[in-house]
Specification:
Elements lengths: L1 H17 L3 H42 L1
Helix pairs in contact: 1-2
Length: 64
C-alpha cells in the first residue's frame, strides 16, 4: 500500500514539475520520500515481531 501512495505522491510531484511549479513539486517529492521511510520502519517492525513470535512459538514447542 505504501508503495502505491509513494508512487502517487511522486507522480503528482512530476505533474507540478512539468507545469513549471518546482516548489510545489518538491513538497510532493519530499512527502513521497517520507512515506517510503515510514513504510520501511513499519515493515521492519513487522518482521521483527514475526521473528519474535516465531522464536516464542519454537520455545513453547521445545519445552512444552
Amino acid at each position: 500500500m505504501a508503495g502505491r501512495n509513494q508512487e502517487l505522491l511522486h507522480n503528482i510531484g512530476m505533474q507540478f514539475a512539468e507545469t513549471q511549479q518546482p516548489e510545489v513539486a518538491e513538497l510532493f517529492f519530499r512527502k513521497a520520500d517520507e512515506t517510503g521511510q515510514q513504510a520501511r520502519v513499519v515493515h521492519q517492525s513487522i518482521l521483527k515481531q514475526e521473528a519474535l513470535s516465531g522464536d516464542l512459538q519454537f520455545e513453547k514447542n521445545k519445552f512444552g
